[in-house]
Amino acid sequence: MVREIDPPSIQKEFLLAALAEGKRLDGRIPLEQRKIEFVFGEELGNVECRLGKTAVLAQVTASIVKPRDDRPYEGFLLINSEIGPMASSVYENGRSSDSEILITRLLEKSIRRTEAIDREALCILAGGKVWQLRLTLHFLSDSGNLLDCASLASMMALKHFRKPDVEVIGDEVIIHSPEERAPVPLAMHHTPLCLTFAYFENLSPILDPTHLESTLCSGTLTVTMNAQREICVLSKAGGTPLSVEEIMGVVRVGVDKVRDMVKIMDEALEKDRENRVVEVR
Amino acid sequence: MSSSRIEILNDGGLRHDARRPYELRSTSFQLDTHPTAEGSSTVTQGLTTVQVSVFGPREPKSRSTASHDKAIINVEVGVVPWAQGGGGKRIRGDKRLQEIGASIRQTFEPVIMTHLYPRSEIFINVQVLSADGGILPTAINATTLSLISAGISITDYVCSVSIGLHLTQPLLDLSYIEENDLPNLILASLTNSGKITLAQMETRLHLDRFQEMLELGTEACKVLKDEMDQVVKDNTGRLVERMNVRVGGGGGGMTIDQ
User: Containing domain of residue B129, as a range?
Assistant: First the structure.
């Protein structure tokens, strides 16, 4: 694996000195996220999410496949999330580094294992035909905190996506093209979103670390939560040891942040809906 | 994955294997179970057995990965084909195993005093011999013991346990069946300070229950630490005794305070 050059120690000292005063290099306060921006593509289910200079493009597509024999009522959700050299030169094609595995595994856990998508609603004909959703993530640029950005992009793409309407008459399945009938949104249980906190020795945690901050920090904690005050995934591997109170502290901060993020998402979706013309005849 | 229809907690307040909610599974800790490794241990918790061997500090296999001021830690995780039903479902290079390896490495990086071993590598090999839930906690406990047995300096014992939640009742040290049915949290803590170094949770859980589970887990880790500490002290005591017999018996000039 290509190793990145460590940042100069003077930069490290400056960053830590600023943090000790509660300031960050990009002018944020410790528990403030970078500005979230969504860019919607031409198709439904194509969303680019930007978190500062970090950018992830998510694309949802659907196809019809045969379900598994032991689960005839369940559709599929596949997540493709390989981080290529486009994001940053430390990532190589074909070979996955530790950090890449952690990102893809956490994404998988927070979207698939928490049952964000109602997979039974993807069933068309029991044992015969189900929808297979494929969520493809393209990591466009890595300026720190790829995971949060990817989870935002994924959830937004899934919310934005519409699958073609189907009609079942006996054993026959008719798929209506979008021109014929308005496509239908996916059935979703909740909106899990990731929040990453970075820790520095003897300093209070910061939310949404930039690339420099995440290289210099002594550990990170990622918590996936939804607006219903539920923790879906929590992952803190190594780094500075924390007390129970410290962990509960960031989790409580997360509750409010996730609520704000869901609000931002809904507003962006609403805005997009107004501009988008969906033809129904 | 099969959705089991077992009763997690019966009317008498017992779990499916007749344990009480806060009862840990029977544990056994064995030190030095590998012939060539610098340190090794086999830890059994219930029906889960994990052997961890520590090699090093030694010269890194690839020089490019070495660090000039500290030791690097590499972890490899393997599961023997017969460890779990189904035979050979998990293969090398499996993402789940790689993730367990990464978790172990990140847990121990701040605990091992890596600055004492510059330009070297500490290689930790984890072999799961039989799996019945709680692979990661058992592997972490075994790694702590192996590092101690290898004589590598660590700042504190790292102990780990899994905690589940059935309705509102927290359960400790889950078996495979319980792990599949319950929201569960894996916790590793530094027992002297009571601080948490690893926390992993994969299933939905309401915020209000979370703190209770964290606190319970840290307590359980302390119990495990006492057990492990006893094993280490027994082992060392035995070693010291033998050294005394040989060195002292031969009229040597070496005395060891006990």
Answer: 27-242
